[in-house]
User: Fold this.
Amino acid sequence: MNTRPGSPDERASPPAPAAGLPPPAERGATVIPDRVVARIAAQATRTAQSRRAAIPSDRGGPTAPHASAAVRTGSVRLHLALDLPYPIDIPRVCERIQRDVAERVAQLTGLRVGEVTLTVRRLATTADANRGRVR
Assistant:
C-alpha cells in the first residue's frame, strides 16, 4: 500500500533519529552559572522583601538586596544580604523570606536549594526611609 505525503499513516510514525547524534539523555546537561543564580535570587529577595517586610522593591539603590550563590552538582547554597524596617519581627520575617527565595530559585532554575543564609545589613526606621534625595 502506498501512502501520500501528509496522510495519517505517515504522520503516525515517529521521527527518525538524527544521524550521528547520541540519544538525548547522553548529550549533556544544562549548566547555570553561579552569577545567574545569584541574580535570580536577588530578584526573588526583592520580591519577598516587599511582600513580607513592606519594603518597596528598589532595583539598584544602596538598600537593594544582594545575593551570592554557589552551585554544585544540582544544588545551590545562597547567601542573601538585605535591609529590614524597624520595628519588625526579625526571625519570622527572615524565615519567610528565606523560604520564599528558596522556592522561587528552585522553581526557576530546577536546582535543589540546600541552604539559604541571610544577613540583615541594617534596620531602617521610618525616619531613615524619609531621608531620601532632596527635591
In short: The longest strand covers residues 112-124. The mean pLDDT is 82. The longest helix spans residues 34-53. The beta strands are 66-72, 75-85, 112-124.
